[in-house]
Write a structure and sequence with these properties.
Blueprint: H1 2-23, E1 30-32, E2 50-55, E3 67-72, E4 78-86, H2 90-105, E5 108-113, E6 122-136, E7 139-152, E8 157-169, H3 175-202, H4 206-212
Parallel strand pairs: 1-4, 2-5, 2-6, 3-6
Antiparallel strand pairs: 3-4, 6-7, 7-8
Helix pairs in contact: 2-3
């Protein structure tokens, strides 16, 4: 019986020691935030062309809706970093950047995030199509793509729609470097998308713009 107790005690201590050693090797996820640069157009707003607009939260494929950061080793193969995650859903970040860019341009009398409570004359809906690292052998790049459309809520007419993309070579091959490049590329894609909207709206005949308000 003493031998059994001794064997049991040794086994218990060994087991606890093993668990303690494993606990010391636990790796916790790191979280990252997209920091989209502010618009350079804030200092030279144009006169409003249209009335109030609300921006719906952008949609996205399931793999971009928060959680692990995605990367591609080929066009057909998608994978995720095990310990690198988004601190905030990228859809909310892109939506906020779109609202900020539209406000800076001054195209509309007012720009708000769509909340289902306030009424507006127009609505913008969009999609975050791509936001991932792309590995092609020794070359690593970032792919970003946004698409959006502007709808007249009174007539349900699509007044404008377009897409904007940016692919950039990743020079700093680290996760922080990747996130920084994604933030810059999102800012560029967002700026191009709102520029397209502004140019199209400005090209509308005056009588049509007035009628739609």
């Amino acid at each position: 019986m003493r031998n059994l107790k001794l064997i049991f005690s040794i086994g218990l201590v060994t087991g606890l020691g093993t668990l303690s050693g494993c606990a010391g090797k636990i790796r916790y996820p790191s979280y990252y935030v997209l920091d989209v640069p502010a618009s350079p157009f804030a200092s030279h707003r144009s006169e409003p062309i249209l009335g109030s607009v609300a921006v719906r939260e952008f949609t996205a494929p399931a793999f971009l809706r928060g959680g692990p950061i995605a990367y591609r080793e080929s066009a057909e193969q998608l994978d995720f970093y095990d310990y690198h995650r988004w601190a905030e859903d990228p859809r909310r970040v892109v939506t906020a950047a779109m609202v900020r860019e539209m406000q800076a341009r001054g195209i509309f009398q007012s720009v708000d995030v769509f909340d289902g409570r306030r009424s507006s004359e127009y609505v913008v809906s969009g999609t975050l199509d791509h936001l991932e690292e792309v590995d092609q052998g020794a070359n690593v790049s970032i792919e970003v793509r946004l698409s959006a459309r502007l709808i007249n809520l009174r007539t349900n007419e699509v007044l404008w729609q377009d897409s904007s993309s940016k692919t950039a070579k990743l020079d700093e091959r680290s996760v922080p470097g990747m996130v920084a490049e994604m933030s810059r590329d999102l800012g560029t894609a967002d700026e191009r998308l709102v520029s397209s909207m502004q140019e199209h709206i400005a090209s509308l005949p005056p009588n049509r713009s007035n009628a739609e308000q």
